[in-house]
Amino acid sequence: MSAEAEYFSKDFEWETLRQEIENNPSYQYHLLPFTDTPSQQLEIQASEDSEAWKRFHHRHSSGKFFKERRYLLKEFPELVSCREFSKVLEVGCGNGSSVIPILRGNKDIIVYACDCSSETLERAKEIVHSSSIFAVQNRFHPFFCDFAFTGFPKWLVCDSCIESLSLKQQECSTDVKEGDVADKSGSYLSRECACCIGGVDFVSLIFTLSAVPLKKMSPAIMECFSVLKPGGLLLFRDYGLYDMTMLRFEQEKRVGFREYMRSDGTRSYFFCLDTVRDLFAGVGFIELELEYCCVKSLNRRKGKSMQRVWVHGKFQKPS
């Protein structure tokens, strides 16, 4: 793997950065409590979020804005070592910057990818299908879904199969057994259950949850929990507290505690480890890994070093 695909996570210590930020008077407004928006107004704002992201993706439809996330397979090696025909649900796929390395890194994996922008999905299909990836037509399945507000479609896993999975029954097992049949995606459906694909083995939330309003995060994570098979993994990466981009927000851009809205109407939340831990544990996930990734990057044009903070997490649905 090339050097640009290497995975680094500890160029500096997050505690050192925290002390610097919290002792700097110019950053004090980021630390102040925030009065909640009245619930009625919150719902109006929430309904506008999807439209803001649709406009955002339309402006950046060339595909050059998002770079391919080649570090993902280093960060989440389970995507390479998993069994044949494992299914991944990539939530908030954008133009496919996370989908492409997953499909390229594992020729047997199947990716279902959703986004709240139909235009972005069309662009993702163009980019992925032009990438010369093995059997991509059978392994990449994009679909429209605004999961935080509408939930996932029932064809991912139906109500009866959710109940069966919660009871640890295998009525909707996608294990390859004698008598099973392959569907057009190359995955396997048991003869006794053709109502849905039976859930997924992985859910990836890569820079997606931070765009969801804070009060919608818990039900959104519950949606992810519901489509995972028992023992399945949720792979998480998102903006961390005191990331450089958080510190750039002006005070009037605050719309909540550690929550900001850009001038284009898109929002971003910056996570501390405790918040992530509480959100995922609150819906039933088991924490396997959770840490800050602290990386220094160089803006060559301006000659400035930038301190980036992301949160890396790996969570499992109980078997």
UniProtKB/TrEMBL annotation:
<dbReference type="GO" id="GO:0032259">
    <property type="term" value="P:methylation"/>
</dbReference>
<dbReference type="InterPro" id="IPR029063">
    <property type="entry name" value="SAM-dependent_MTases_sf"/>
</dbReference>
<dbReference type="Pfam" id="PF13489">
    <property type="entry name" value="Methyltransf_23"/>
</dbReference>
<comment type="similarity">
    <text>Belongs to the methyltransferase superfamily. METL family.</text>
</comment>
<dbReference type="GO" id="GO:0008757">
    <property type="term" value="F:S-adenosylmethionine-dependent methyltransferase activity"/>
</dbReference>
<keyword id="KW-0808">Transferase</keyword>
<protein>
    <recommendedName>
        <fullName>tRNA N(3)-methylcytidine methyltransferase</fullName>
        <ecNumber>2.1.1.-</ecNumber>
    </recommendedName>
</protein>
<dbReference type="InterPro" id="IPR026113">
    <property type="entry name" value="METTL2/6/8-like"/>
</dbReference>
<comment type="function">
    <text>S-adenosyl-L-methionine-dependent methyltransferase.</text>
</comment>
<keyword id="KW-0489">Methyltransferase</keyword>
<dbReference type="GO" id="GO:0008173">
    <property type="term" value="F:RNA methyltransferase activity"/>
</dbReference>
